């Protein structure tokens, strides 16, 4: 992986001005940057959305397949929103200023079925640093079946990618809870991100332990305790994970793989802009006025604010968005946004269609 060099922060008046203004907002209003009471209430509600159906499935004695499938679908939605609104903040270190409490909240990753360190490397380190840079940002890797930018090779079947994308978007979480964490652990060791030896062995055994826990609780117990054929339960579990997968894909893809976002094919190892300005060119918001959407997706519809201030809890993004908008306008920088989630999804699939032609 190439470690690209951005212009230094000291060379970017926009970034220094914006940081000063946002810090002043928190100081002047005597507000902490981490979770507040609303965030704590949200955390409890989302864990209830995820785990309450599970307990009903296990102990409710229900055998009606329609009811069972509905409960698994609700679990899938709950899992997606825990991922966006709890796990995401905690792994960014934005949930609590207490390292101990924040570390406890990262355990939510194990309940979702993914490894927190692998997520942190791929998302926090690589994606947030090298957003939409070809061959580096893993979130836009084509993986043969897709063409996410004009820089990527075109295959004949890409003309259909906007049609088959929803099916493929159901798969990533299933891959993540089975093979991806292990594959990435070896890959990141080879890249030197995870150090060989003690660190790698410790991380690998941690992945194994957390996977076993997840499989026992969310696979073996339902198969054993729900009084229907095992294959039926397995099918429902797969559907639940598919629901989570497509929800997460749509929430994240609509922030970067959209027509107004830039994709960078760098020559050499230098990027022409400061890191902060780069985030503006490669990121888009959506549905900023939709409070219900903001609540469920963990403020990720304010993706620009999140990329600029990932250490700030998402409950504060709507309040600092006006500061970011005013500052970008002052420095003649872009601030991309779709009016709604629906329009962002339409923009994403329209872009897939156009890139496949």
TrEMBL record:
InterPro entries: FA_desaturase_dom, Fatty_acid_desaturase. Keywords: Membrane, Transmembrane, Transmembrane helix. It comes from the Bacteria. The chain crosses the membrane at residues 43-62, 68-88, 204-225, 231-252. Residues 71-338 form the Fatty acid desaturase domain. The keyword Nucleotide-binding does not apply. Signal peptide: none annotated. This is Acyl-CoA desaturase.
């Amino acid at each position: 992986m190439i470690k690209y060099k951005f212009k230094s922060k000291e060379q970017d008046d926009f970034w220094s001005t914006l940081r000063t203004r946002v810090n002043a907002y928190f100081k002047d209003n005597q507000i902490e940057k981490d979770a507040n009471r609303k965030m704590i209430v949200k955390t409890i509600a989302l864990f209830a959305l995820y785990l309450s159906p599970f307990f009903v499935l296990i102990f409710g004695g229900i055998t009606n397949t329609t009811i069972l499938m509905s409960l698994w679908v609700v679990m899938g939605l709950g899992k997606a929103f825990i991922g966006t609104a709890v796990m995401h903040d905690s792994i960014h270190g934005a949930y609590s200023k207490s390292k101990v409490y924040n570390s406890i909240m990262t355990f939510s990753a194990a309940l979702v079925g993914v490894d927190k360190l692998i997520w942190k490397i791929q998302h926090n380190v690589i994606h947030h640093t090298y957003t939409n840079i070809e061959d580096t940002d893993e979130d836009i890797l084509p993986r043969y079946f897709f063409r996410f930018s004009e820089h990527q090779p075109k295959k004949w079947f890409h003309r259909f990618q906007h049609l088959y994308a929803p099916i493929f978007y159901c798969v990533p979480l299933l891959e993540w809870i089975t093979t991806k964490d292990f594959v990435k652990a070896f890959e990141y060791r080879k890249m030197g991100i995870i150090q060989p030896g003690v660190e790698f062995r410790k991380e690998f055994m941690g992945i194994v332990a957390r996977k076993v826990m997840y499989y026992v609780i969310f696979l073996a117990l339902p198969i054993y305790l729900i009084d229907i054929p095992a294959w039926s339960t397995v099918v429902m579990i797969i559907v639940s994970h598919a629901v989570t997968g497509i929800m997460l894909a749509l929430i994240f893809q609509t922030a970067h793989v959209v027509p107004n976002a830039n994709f960078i094919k760098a020559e050499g190892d230098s990027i022409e802009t400061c890191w902060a300005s780069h985030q503006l060119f490669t990121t888009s918001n959506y549905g900023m006025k939709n409070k219900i959407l903001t609540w469920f997706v963990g403020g990720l519809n304010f993706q620009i604010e999140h990329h600029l201030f990932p250490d700030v809890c998402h409950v504060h993004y709507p309040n600092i968005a006006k500061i970011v908008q005013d500052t970008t306008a002052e420095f003649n920088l872009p601030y991309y946004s779709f009016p709604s989630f629906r329009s962002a999804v339409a923009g994403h699939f329209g872009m897939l269609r156009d890139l496949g032609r």
